[in-house]
Specification:
The protein has helices spanning about 5-20, 25-40, 45-70, 75-80, 90-110, 115-135, 140-160, 170-190, 190-195, 200-205, 205-225, 225-230, 235-260, 265-290. By secondary structure, it is mainly alpha-helical. It has a single domain (about 15-290), classed as Tetracycline Repressor, domain 2 (Orthogonal Bundle), CATH 1.10.357.140.
Length: about 290
């Protein structure tokens, strides 16, 4: 019989690895792939390929998150000391090994979808690697890269069903929304990034200018949000949900950042935006379901 303390240790270790991969981000990516397939006219068929594609994206994102934590450990000691590696719950080598294993599994699974899915999985893996090791040192390009990768989750769902037409609109929204949030997260992480000499957008241009950049992305989201309804791409349900659940929240976030461009407020706004993603996904789903 296992000793109770041994079982507790295993549970704590597993929890640390779950935190390492940031499961909420993975859940959002998983849902985005399924939604991309649905919006592309594929419905839920072929269901097996859609599920495999969703799991593939979740695993690759988890691999990228683990790799980022491995590369960001020095800044995390200041910005996020409770993260699994700086807190000592997971060793750096273990995190790197775990990340590599996830990349291998994710790329392997993509072969079960189709060759295009496999090619995209390879490209995404390369971008995640480049981001963690070099692209994150290039202001704005780093933020845009994460936005691009997020948008690709919807496209990946379309690839699973053989057409990406319906996935393009949410992919554009995802790019703009995520790029804005990544800039805001740069403001949040200023202290740690300064300590390791990371030339983020907030450090290079200053907090206020970084806020202005994020506002441009968010303003674009709000301005173009009615267009899918105007061109009859989505129904009135979409317009109502996106106006109340997304645009209103983003306007609040913009005004708050303009008034308080501090690291603490940036962290708060980034969290609000993370959960607001679900409102956006729901608006798109309802808009297409009841078209």
């Amino acid at each position: 019989m296992f000793h109770k303390s041994y079982l507790v240790g295993i549970a704590m270790s597993l929890y640390a690895y779950v935190r390492l991969i940031r499961p909420l981000n993975g859940l959002i990516a998983f849902i985005s792939v399924i939604l991309g397939a649905f919006l592309s006219g594929g419905g839920i068929n072929p269901a097996d390929k859609i599920i495999i594609a969703s799991v593939t994206v979740l695993i690759l994102l988890s691999a990228g998150n683990a790799l980022n934590d491995y590369c960001d450990v020095e800044s995390d000691r200041i910005n996020k000391p409770s993260r699994p590696i700086p807190s000592g719950h997971i060793g750096k080598c273990s995190a790197l090994t775990f990340s590599i294993l996830l990349f291998i599994i994710g790329i392997g699974l993509s072969l079960l979808v189709n060759w295009m899915a496999f090619l995209i999985a390879l490209i995404v893996s390369l971008l995640l690697l480049l981001y963690a090791t070099s692209l994150r040192k290039l202001p704005l390009l780093a933020n845009s890269t994460i936005g691009l990768l997020t948008g690709l989750t919807f496209i990946y769902g379309g690839i699973a069903v053989g057409t990406i037409t319906g996935a393009i609109v949410p992919a554009v929204f995802a790019f703009l929304f995520t790029a804005a949030r990544e800039v805001i997260k740069d403001i949040q992480d200023v202290k740690g990034d300064q300590a390791i000499g990371m030339p983020s957008l907030a450090i290079t241009w200053g907090n206020k200018r970084a806020v202005y950049v994020s506002l441009v992305f968010l303003a674009l989201v709000i301005v173009i949000s009615p267009i899918p309804y105007i061109i009859s791409f989505y129904s009135l349900y979409y317009l109502i949900c996106v106006a109340l659940g997304v645009d209103t929240v983003l306007i609040y976030c913009m005004l708050s950042l303009l008034r308080y461009p501090s690291e603490h407020n940036a962290a708060r706004i980034a969290n609000i935006m993370k959960f607001d993603i679900f409102a956006g996904l729901g608006a798109i789903y309802l808009g297409k379901l009841w078209l």
